[in-house]
């Protein structure tokens, strides 16, 4: 259209990473549509993506300039960027000098761009000398990361979305892609509609929209996933549905595993899981007879005190059937956030270094130190997401810098997080909008540029790197997150190592550091991504067109090059239920909202889907407690309370209740915040919290 400019970019919400074309008129009007050339989304966008332009055009809640408090009791007051960053540098330097580098830390987000992750990781690990950088990806994917590393030797998702159309059996476990990864699900639905032999098996205590599409819904008791998967493995082995050649030549650990899974009686397994034996046998038949078998999972698996075990149990099904590294087959973890994968590429977790190097490996530390031009890196692992807030609360950490995330609503056991933020000596919040509850606890608020106001890259669930273009100027005095961190690095006295003119130069440095690693993207640059479109890593040369599928040669990243079939305990380690707290609370997401609603909560169209928080409860549990549809109920345990209306539904199994995790004080009220009562137990390996299992009781509060 005349007078309109088109900008190709990428949706900033979920890990599907859909391509977006933004049309901008001369008078600044913005509209969005799906990018038909984007291989992940092929022109489709879900409700959140289709409404992206509203979040761009409505600037009413945006943070426009830096603000600072003179002391904790004083109000936030506008200051210049220089004043803000000089104060931050002075405070950080004082704490580092007095208490050491581990007294400070950064808590970032899977919504940060790769370049933003890279500079903050370099600053704290290379120059401040601490590994206290963790992100909300810890709440999302860390159990999958550990599972992949233990079984395959590397944090590597083998599949591509193009495998969807080549598979004939899907095991979707702890995931509701119909709502949370809608465009992936649309591809699956279309494939199933065109090929009736395609089977969906859904494992979920709730009958979600995904489960409604299933040929087989295994509505298990929460926490029994490993028992179920081991029982399916036993069935596959006993009926000869395994690939003995693959097991013999490309795996290790099968004999011990076979012994373990054979010991559990199938009938007993069915009872533990709360489903029928027939249904387990049916799952065995569907998987065993499939030519292409894909498993998909997300937070229902990862956000668990046994998240790593669940991942390993699922990976084992692929390793015993040989369904990995070939077209239409493989384990396919779905990342919740748009750049959880990119964050891991740059080493943006407290135990990682760039390009998936391990902090624990002295050779890896030296490689990175040499590259950054520093003598050595601190070998001590940094604090993870929940550990950082514990350390703030008990005074081991003094200052935290929070980037692009709202921990007061999103972390478990919110009252503890509140106490930690109050106890912290210095809190910096760098964000786009003042709809984050965490801003209230900030000593320093820094306005960040939003989607469309900056350039950079993200990597989606299928290892596909996409470019995000700028089509708007940042509002007010907002700056891109990478620029804020670079300016701060200069104020800290590290300017010599942070001389970048733009995000493209940061990306080039990140790319150089990946050379020769399993995540080699030496063939990528902003220029190439902008002109040639998206590519899946590894992309080791300019001539390479990327790698749609890993392990096609069945050579894994372990020392023996064989995948590891792990024998794992099948019990749950969540907090026990009791007479006082007999129900399992599980939390999750709704279709039209994103995380803590700081963006999607501003869009009227999206708010119409489900306007308020609610509790899902089974009719039998509601009847036992005298609860009727719409009654306000109190959901409680020793950590706190939530008060929301009840939705009585057969869709949730008896003994389990569900709360959506989006609402907090600013959007609705503190009483609607699900994390008032979630458990802060974490998986011992991944340190991912147990959001999907807390012991609670529900009582009628008052009738509407
Ligand atoms: Fe955005 Fe995810 Fe929806 Fe695609 S599926 S439009 S990436 S929210």
What does this structure look like?
The protein is an alpha/beta fold. The protein has four domains: 4-57, Phosphorylase Kinase, domain 1, CATH 3.30.200; 67-140 and 339-500, Rossmann fold; 142-333, Dimethylsulfoxide Reductase, domain 2; 583-702, Barwin-like endoglucanases, CATH 2.40.40. 32% of the residues lie in helices and 18% in strands. The protein contains 25 helices and 28 strands. The strands form seven sheets. A seven-stranded mixed β-sheet has the order 5-4-18-17-16-6-7, sandwiched between helices. Strands 23-27-24-26-25-28 form a six-stranded mixed barrel. The chain has a five-stranded parallel β-sheet with strand order 10-9-8-12-13. A hairpin with an 8-residue loop joins β4 (67-68) and β5 (77-78). α9 (225-238) runs parallel beside α15 (307-321). The longest helix is centred in the N-terminal third of the chain and has 19 residues, at 81-99. It is globular and about 70 Å long. The mean pLDDT is 96. Residues 11, 13-14, 16-18, 41, 45-46, 48-49, 181-183 line the site of iron/sulfur cluster. Its EC number is 1.9.6.1.
């Amino acid at each position: 259209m005349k007078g309109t400019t088109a900008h190709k970019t990428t949706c900033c919400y979920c890990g599907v990473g859909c391509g977006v074309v933004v049309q901008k008129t001369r008078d600044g009007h913005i509209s969005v549509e799906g990018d038909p050339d984007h291989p992940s989304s092929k022109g489709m966008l879900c409700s959140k993506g289709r409404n992206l332009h509203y979040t761009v055009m409505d600037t009413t809640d945006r943070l426009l300039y830096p603000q600072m408090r003179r002391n904790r009791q004083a109000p936030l007051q506008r200051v210049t960027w220089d004043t803000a960053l000089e104060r931050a540098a002075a405070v950080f330097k004082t704490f580092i000098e007095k208490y050491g580098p581990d007294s400070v830390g950064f808590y970032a987000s899977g919504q940060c761009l790769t370049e933003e992750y890279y500079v903050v990781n370099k600053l704290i690990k290379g120059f401040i000398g601490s590994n206290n950088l963790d992100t909300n990806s810890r709440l999302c994917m860390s159990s999958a990361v550990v599972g992949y590393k233990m079984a395959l030797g590397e944090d590597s998702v083998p599949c591509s979305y193009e495998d969807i159309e080549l598979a004939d059996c899907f095991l979707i476990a702890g995931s509701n892609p119909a709502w949370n990864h809608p465009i992936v699900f649309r591809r699956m639905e279309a494939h199933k509609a065109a090929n009736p032999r395609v089977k969906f098996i859904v494992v979920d205590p709730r009958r979600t929209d995904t489960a409604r599409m299933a040929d087989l819904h295994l509505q298990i008791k929460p926490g029994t996933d490993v028992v179920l998967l081991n029982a399916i493995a036993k069935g596959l082995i006993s009926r000869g549905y395994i690939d003995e050649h693959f097991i013999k030549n490309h795996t290790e650990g099968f004999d011990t595993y076979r012994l373990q899974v054979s010991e559990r009686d199938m009938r007993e397994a069915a009872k533990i899981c709360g489903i029928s034996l027939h249904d387990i046998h049916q799952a065995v038949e569907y998987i065993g007879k499939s030519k292409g078998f894909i498993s998909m999972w997300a937070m229902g698996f990862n956000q668990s005190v046994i998240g790593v075990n669940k991942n390993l149990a699922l990976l084992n099904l692929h390793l015993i059937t040989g369904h990995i590294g070939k077209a239409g087959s493989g384990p396919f973890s779905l990342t919740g956030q748009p750049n959880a994968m990119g964050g891991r590429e740059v080493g943006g977790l407290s135990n990682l270094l760039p390009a998936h190097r391990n902090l624990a490996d002295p050779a890896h530390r030296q490689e990175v130190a040499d590259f950054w031009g520093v003598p050595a890196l601190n070998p001590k692992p940094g604090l993870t997401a929940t550990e950082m807030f514990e350390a703030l609360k008990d005074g081991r950490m003094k200052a935290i810098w929070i980037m692009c995330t709202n921990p007061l609503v999103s972390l478990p056991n919110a009252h503890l997080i509140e106490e930690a933020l109050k106890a912290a000596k210095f809190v910096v919040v760098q964000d786009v909008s003042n709809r984050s509850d965490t801003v209230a606890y900030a000593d320093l608020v820094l306005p960040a540029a939003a989607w469309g106001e900056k350039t950079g890259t993200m990597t989606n669930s299928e290892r596909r790197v996409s470019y995000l273009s700028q089509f708007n100027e940042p509002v007010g005095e907002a700056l891109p997150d990478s620029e804020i961190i670079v300016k701060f690095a200069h104020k800290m006295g590290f300017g010599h190592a942070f001389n970048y003119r733009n995000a493209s130069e940061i990306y080039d440095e990140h790319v150089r550091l990946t050379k020769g690693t399993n995540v080699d993207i030496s063939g990528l640059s902003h220029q190439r991504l902008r002109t040639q479109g998206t590519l899946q890593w590894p992309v080791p040369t300019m001539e390479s067109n990327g790698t749609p599928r890993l392990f096609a040669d069945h050579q894994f990243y372990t020392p023996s090059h064989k995948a590891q079939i792990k024998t794992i305990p099948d019990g749950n380690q969540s907090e026990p239920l009791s007479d006082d707290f007999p129900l399992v609370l599980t939390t999750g997401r709704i279709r039209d909202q994103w995380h803590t609603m700081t963006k999607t909560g501003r869009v009227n169209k999206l708010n119409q889907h489900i306007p308020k928080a609610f509790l899902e409860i089974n009719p039998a549990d509601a009847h036992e407690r005298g609860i009727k549809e719409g009654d306000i109920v109190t959901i409680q345990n020793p950590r706190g309370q939530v008060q929301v209306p009840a939705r009585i539904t057969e869709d949730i199994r008896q003994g389990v209740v569900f709360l959506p995790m989006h609402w907090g004080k600013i959007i609705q009220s503190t009483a609607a915040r699900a994390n008032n009562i979630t458990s802060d137990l974490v998986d011992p390996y991944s340190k991912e919290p147990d959001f999907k299992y807390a012991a609670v009781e529900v009582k009628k509060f008052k009738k509407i």
